[in-house]
Structures are given as structure tokens and as C-alpha cells.
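USER:
I would value a second opinion on how I read folds in C-alpha cell form. Give me a protein, with the fold worked out from its sequence. Write it directly below this note and I will take it from there.

ASSISTANT:
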Amino acid sequence: MDEWTKHDLLDLQELSKKEIEKILETAKSFKQVSTRDVKKVPALRGKTVVMLFFEPSTRTRISFELAAKRLSADTINISASTSSLTKGETIVDTAKNIEAMNVNAIIVRHSCAGVPKVLAEALEPSIINAGDGCRAHPTQALLDMFTIKERLGRIEGLKIGIVGDILHSRVARSNIWGLTKLGAEVTLCGPSTLMPVGIEDHGVRVTYDLNEVIENSDVMMMLRIQKERQNNIYLPSLAEYAKHFGINKSKLKKKKSNLLIMHPGPTNRGVEISGEIADGESSIILDQVTNGVAIRMSVLYLLLGTKESLT
């Protein structure tokens, strides 16, 4: 695939296998840029990228801002708490006012599923979904796939276990869409109360046996219990969850020797993952963070880039 035709990035459902692979391949060169003394290329010189975040974020916001700046774009950060939304303005009106200032892209995170799609249908600038409700987080899944492929050389045929709060996880959904398109065998594991009904229809297996996942997986992706999106009806306690679905050194005795441990962050140490595992030799959690910048540079470049040299 030579030409990129997409105007927005809303989720991985709308991307083909070749388009996903194009993003991953383009990210390779941008990762090299981030290791140089001068960490900038002129690809987005003169472009303006707006970060419109309605939820707290550390990794995603900083990663997108770094990505845009390393591509030489101008960046603007807007927080919902300091915008005219607090005065009753609708999100579409807020975004249209931003559009009127001739910006090129708006990166949006919102607690309600579908907000990026609404903005994409209403606005001319490219819309990039940085997480909408429990539905999708496409760039997180892309950086996860990039990290797996970087470490293991492939995704097709790998056995990947996703463990935890599947019901509320936009990261899980985006990874399911992306990993299955690239040929991975995905198994979901977690409490039955946190497993979406009918999720098997998306080409994944479901098990409630953590040991099965540990013994068979090439990669395990641990998910945070999202206390802010649920109430106490889903779990007896966090201690009970950690006992049955958290991982620690003792539980990983039967793992494959080259098992990789991932986590999208932030981690609840001692709940879904122990500190010794999060910081251990199997963990590639910080690699995910590093690769997030390269992936987001790739996405911004493909959506907005010029034909200028990347050197």
C-alpha cells in the first residue's frame, strides 16, 4: 500500500490489515528519530495540532504532544475544566470554534463513547481518537502491536492473553480488533462479571482460568481494574480479584521462558500485577511507553504529513 487515504483515526475496526501494517512500518523510522540528538523532522512544519482532553491522562497526552512537536507541528492543549464547556457550550460548538482558527488536527479523549465520531462528522480537521469511553483506544493498541512485533518479530500465530476488566476496557477492544486482523490468537480472561456478553463473536477465546493463559501465552496483557467506570457490584473486593486474576512471581512459574508481560498503564501494583513482575525482565511496559511516541508520530504523519524529507 503506497498511498494513505484515511482522514481520521477513530478505531481499528475501520482500518485494513495493510493500513495497520503501514502505520507500524512508518513508526520504525520515527523511533530512530527519537534516539537522535536532534529529535525533530520538518514533516508537519506549519501544521497545528490541538489536544482536547475531557479525561485525565499522563502517557497519552504527553506522548501525542511529543509526537507532534518532534514532527515540528505547533501544539495547543485544551482542558475541559478551563474551556467554555463549563459555561454550557456544547462539545461540537467548542470544536467548531477551534476549527475556525484553522487547525489541522484535533486529538480528543472523552468519557462518552462515540464523541470522536461525532466530531469527525461535523468538522474538517482530522480527528484522532485518544480514547472514547469503553469503546476504543486505537493508538494504544497500535503501540502494543508495534512493541510485540519489535520484540518477537511477528504477530501472526502468536498466542496473546488479555487479562482483567475486559468489560470496561477500550484498550482490550482495540487490541482485539487489531491483533486478530494481524493473525494473533487472542484469549480473554477475567471475572465473568467483567466479561462482555457475546465477545467470542469477535474471533477470540474466553477462559476464566488464569493458569491456562499463563501456560499457553507468548504475551500477556494485564488490564487495570477501572474503578472509575464501575461500582462494587462487579467484584467482591480488589483483594479477591488479585487472588484469582492478578499475576505475581509465584503464579508465573509455569510460563513460557520468553513470555512478555504488558500493561497499558496506569498499573495498580499488587492488584492486577505485582511490583516484581512489573519491574522484572519479562515486563515490556516501559517499551510500550517509548513506542507510543513513534506510533503517534506515524499516525500524525500519515494523516497530515507533507512530502518533505524525513531526514
Confidence is low (pLDDT under 50) at residues 307-311. The CA atoms of residues 188 and 206 lie 5 Å apart. Residues 138-286 form a domain with the Rossmann fold fold (CATH 3.40.50.1370). The radius of gyration is 19 Å.
